[in-house]
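Lay summary. Proteins are chains of building blocks that fold into shapes, and those shapes determine what they do. In this project we predict the shape from the chain. Here is one chain we studied, written as its sequence of building blocks.
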Amino acid sequence: MEKGAIFPLFYLPPIEYFSKLIEFRENILIENAEHFPKQSYRNRAGIHSPNGRLNLIVPVMKGSKDHTSVKDVRISYDFRWQRLHWTSLQTCYRSSAYFEFYEDDFSVFYNKKWDFLFDYNEELLNMVLRLLNLPLTYHYTGQFEKEHPGYEDFRSSIHPKRSPVKPVNNYFQVFESRNGFLPNLSIVDLLFNQGPQSKLYL
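And here is the predicted shape, written in a compact code that computers can read:
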């Protein structure tokens, strides 16, 4: 069997995540039994705003701390974060080449409510894979293991506070002339700016 890799589920994952999915496409495990770690991409995504990098954070219910299973983490709707995220995406990418091309696909995720973060992230991932024309299949871990022999582990290595393992090539970004190129943003930055060419970039 080809060497595999284990991934967490992220909210609108960074570009590096999809590059690694393609690299290990023959043998992918999705972690569904870990404890929920805070301040990770599991409930945040970085996009390119007029003022630089902007983090979009999905709020979770109180009590969703390190000892809570990731499948049991519930999304909080105490404030209208969906409206804030969608407005932010519109503000940042309305003038990009492909925002209107994908707008209807994404808008669903900011109008309908999901109970659990894991389910929300999984449906987003499947939609993005479809938009990228990446027909990947994956399996679940089933139970938590610190180590998975034969699998490269990306559960903590792809993290907001860590730089990508490989240098990220530049592509056109709407506010690049103002802020410079911002590497390894959410996959939406690549999609909205590069459209169908995103797969080739990855």
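What the prediction tells us: Residues 9 and 120 are 10 Å apart (CA to CA).
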